[in-house]
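> call design_seq(struct)
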């Protein structure tokens, strides 16, 4: 499972986006240095791309692990993006971020932009109930966590595609 951290390196983020087609990513953090990383929320690919087009929000790593408190974009502005503006421009940016050494030293604070109320399900959650959650809420992806809230997987709509077919067949074949 590919996860992001609240504080993400620009070059690593660009490599991830260039090498995957995932529509969204779970975001994790380590509450204390000796603890495991736990699920915090999700962020969509489109939102990440929009953020990466704005270099002024990148920051160098700090020893105290903090970020400046300014949030140049509102959560609403970032999450209202519906499609990639210019794919060739984005491809060029991702290439530059992965090859130029200065982006190895720059980071982005994702915390203000993640969906902290994102749904997640436990690893042993019923497949049928998962399908109902997807259909009812119109989800595209759903994070799967263990009892300690560590990310163990992601379920997408495509993972559940055979399920509605099976349901429709059962309804068609059921005696009336």
């Amino acid at each position: 499972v590919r996860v992001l951290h609240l504080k993400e390196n620009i070059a690593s983020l660009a490599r991830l986006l260039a090498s995957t087609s995932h529509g969204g990513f779970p975001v994790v953090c380590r509450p204390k240095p000796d603890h495991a990383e736990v699920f915090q929320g999700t962020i969509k690919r489109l939102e990440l791309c929009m953020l990466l087009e704005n270099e002024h929000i990148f920051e160098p790593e700090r020893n105290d692990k903090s970020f400046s408190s300014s949030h140049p974009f509102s959560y609403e502005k970032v999450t209202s993006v519906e499609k990639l503006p210019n794919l060739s421009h984005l491809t060029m940016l991702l290439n530059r971020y992965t090859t130029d050494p200065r982006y190895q030293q720059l980071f982005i604070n994702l915390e203000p932009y993640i969906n902290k109320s994102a749904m997640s399900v436990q690893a042993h959650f019923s497949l049928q109930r998962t399908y109902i959650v997807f259909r009812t809420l119109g989800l595209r992806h759903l994070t799967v966590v263990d009892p300690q809230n560590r990310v163990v997987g992601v379920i997408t709509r495509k993972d559940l595609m055979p399920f509605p077919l099976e349901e429709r067949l059962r309804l068609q074949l059921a005696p009336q």
